[in-house]
Amino acid sequence: MGATALLALIALTILAGGFVAGLDAGMVYNTFPLMEGRVVPPDYGTMRPWWRDWFENRATVQFHHRVLAIAT
After folding, report:
1. Is residue 38 classed as helix, strand or coil in its secondary structure?
2. DSSP state letter for 47
3. Are 36 and 58 in contact (CB under 8 A)?
4. Neighbours of 37 (CB within 10 A)
5. Residue 51: in which H helix or E strand, if any?
6. Angle formed by the axes of helices 2-23 and 58-71, to 10°?
7. How far is CA 48 from the centre of its chain?
8. What's the whole-model pTM score?
9. Of 17, 39, 62, 67, which residue is most buried, by most CB within 10 angstroms?
């Protein structure tokens, strides 16, 4: 069970990294762990409808990838 969950978390982190690379999101916030001096970037969650934000907002995509990488 634990190995399967870890493998799923790794796969999800890799997928999020693909979104970061595809959107060049790594160029927006290049400091770690804070993004413009904040844990959650100011542009997080600004797109509508909300589900587009998860795939097309560079700040959101990079934030998700960072959180998943730390969790992994």
Report:
1. strand
2. S
3. no
4. 8
5. helix 50-56
6. 150
7. 18
8. 0.88
9. 62
